[in-house]
Every structure is written in structure tokens, then in C-alpha cells.
Amino acid sequence: MIKLPSTKFLTVISKLERRTVAYHESGHAVTGWFLEHAEPLLKVTIVPRGTAALGFAQYVPNENLLMTKEQLFDMTCMTLGGRAAEQVLIGRISTGAQNDLEKVTKMTYAQVAVYGFSDKVGLLSFPQREDSFEMSKPYSSKTAAIIDNEVREWVGKAYERTIQLMEEHKEQVATIAELLLEKEVLHQEDLVRVLGERPFKSAEPTNYDRFIQGFQEDEEKIIEKPVNEPEESGGSSSLDPLVVPT
Q1: 25 an active-site residue?
Q2: What's the structural domain count of the chain?
Q3: Has residue 182 been placed in a domain?
Q4: Most exposed residue of 41, 75, 156, 227, measured as fewest CB within 10 angstroms of its CB?
């Protein structure tokens, strides 16, 4: 989830900017929906908050303790989905993807230079030490060039895959974007109506499956509970659904 500033000051944006934000956020949503290892969308809005966030997307929390190269590739593609949607459906690219590109750069450098995923760099790890005052890197300029080239190549491949997804699902991206322009806020069930259920089934339930199952069970409990049934003692959790009596 993108951390947002206070909603006290709302930013007024033009119709063109609003449309760009809608297609950008739709690109993220659709890309994540059709990539197996990406975390699918729960909520997206194009209501601007301050000057730091013109759109906001919330995804299923990633609770995996370990990540594979394939998972990180899909996450990279999803992060690039906004920029790809602008390129394919609007025909021009805005500065809105700056934060996305920063995330992708850090993620890919970590894969190449820290996690040992690159055959060209080898089984080496050069984690960046934030508390270090060293003026030089712990590897040669030749290794630095290899790392830089690998990062550019990997990000390029991820972007090509994302552009391909945008082309394949162009109509659905446009539909989601237009719904955003109309409603300003969309939830997971809105995406299911447009995109259908996610086309991935695994032997073990994913974070998304567990979230949806828990959400449905909570709704069933609310429906089944008699109106005048007294509450059980033992306190409540901040995660419990709020039931307002009528």
C-alpha cells in the first residue's frame, strides 16, 4: 500500500491529468491480475491526496518470507504496469511513474547484486550498508558495469512483458480506467466483474485466496448473527468488521 499524506488538503487536477491517473492505476491493476506471482488488487482510487499521490492502490499484503526470481519478476512487471498503460493506451508517458521506476530500480539491483540471481555476477552479494561511510564500492569498476548492464536488461525484459500484457488486455484496461473515472473508487469485486476470476489455481492457497476466504466468512457471520444476540465477552479486534445497528 502506498503511504499517503493527510487528506486535509485535496489537490485539484485537470481532466487530462485525471484521465492519465485512471489509466495508470488501471494498468497496475490489470497487470497484477494476470500475473501469477503478483499480489492482486483489493482497492484503487483516483481521488488525489495532497501533492504526493494522485492515485492510490491497495493490494493483498505479501506475507511470504522467501521470494523467488519468478515472483520478483512478476512484481516488477506489476510495478511497471502504470507506465506501460500510459504508453499503450494514451500514447504518451507522464512523470507519474517516477516512484514506480525507483522501486523497480532498487528491486532489480537487489536481485543482481545482493540475492545472487544473476549468472553474470555470480554467487556474490554486495548489500548496501546505510550506516557505512565508505567512499568506494567493494567491487571493481568492471563488476559495477556488469551489474548496471544486468539491471537494465532485466528491467527491459520486464517492461517488454508488461507492454505485451497491455496489448493483450487493452480493452479491459480501458474499461477499468473508465469505471475509475466514473466511480473514483473500485474494489476487488469490481475487477472480478470486468476481468473474471484470476486464472491461477495452486495446490496451496495464496495470500489472496486466504484474504478472500476470510472476508467471505466474516460476511457470512454478520448475516447469520441474530440482530438481538448479545455480544460475547472477551473484547474485540481492530480487524473485526464493524456492524452498525439499524
Answers
A1: yes
A2: 1
A3: yes
A4: 227
242 part of a folded domain: no
Neighbouring CB atoms inside 10 A of 90's CB total 16
The residue annotated as part of the active site, out of 17, 25, 184, 197, is 25
- Among 118, 99, 144, 86, residue whose Cα is nearest residue 3: 99
Classify 177 as helix, strand or coil: helix
- The span from the CA of 153 to the CA of 121, in Å, is 13
Residue 48's domain comprises 15-127+137-211
Q: CA–CA separation, 116 vs 198, rounded Å?
A: 31
C-alpha cell, 244: 452498525
Q: How many CB atoms lie within 10 A of CB 9?
A: 10
CATH of the domain at 52: 1.20.58.760
Residue 20 contacts residue 86 (beta carbons within 8 Å): yes
Count of CB atoms situated within 10 Å of the CB of 217: 10
- Stated pTM of the model: 0.75
CA atoms within 13 A on the CB side of 141: 0
Q: Write out the chain's pLDDT in tens, 246 residues.
A: 333 444 444 556 788 999 999 999 999 999 999 999 988 888 888 887 655 567 777 777 777 778 999 999 999 999 999 999 999 999 999 998 999 999 999 999 999 999 999 999 999 999 877 655 555 578 899 999 999 999 999 999 999 999 999 999 999 999 999 999 999 999 989 999 999 988 876 545 555 555 555 545 555 554 555 544 444 444 443 333 333 333
